[in-house]
Amino acid sequence: MSFLLDQFSSLSERTIKTLNRYPMASFSAFIVTIVLINLVELQGNYQDNPIAITLIKIAFVASLGVVMFPALRLLRMHWLMIVLGIGLLAGYYYILPSDITASESNIFVRHFFLMVAFFIMLIWAPFALLSISNRNIWEWTQNLIVALVSSIFFSLILYGGLSLALFAVSRLFEIEIASKRYIQVAIAVFGFYGINIFLSQVPKYVLLLQTKVYSKVEIIFTKYILTPLTLEYFLILYLYTAKVLITMSWPKGILAWIIVIFSFVAILTYLFWTPLKKNHRFNRYIWIAILIQTLMLGLAIGIRVEEYGITESRYFMALYGIWLLIMSLYFILVKNAHYKWLFLTASLLLISSQFGTYSAAEVSKRSQQDRLQHYLIDLQPLSEQSDLKSRYEVSEIIQYLYNYYGIEALQPVIPTTVAAYELWNEDENGTDQGYEESYFPYFATEHLGFKFVTNWEYENRDFSNVQTFASDEQDEMIAVAGYQWMTHFYYNQSFDHEEATVSAQDDGYHLALEANQLKVIEHNQTTAIDLSHFITSLPLQYDQVKFGTQSVKAEDLYHHYQDEQLKVKLLINSISIQEDNNISMLDCNVLIGKLH
Question: Which residue, 102, 221, 354, 431, has fewest beta-carbon neighbours within 10 Å?
Answer without folding.
Answer: 431
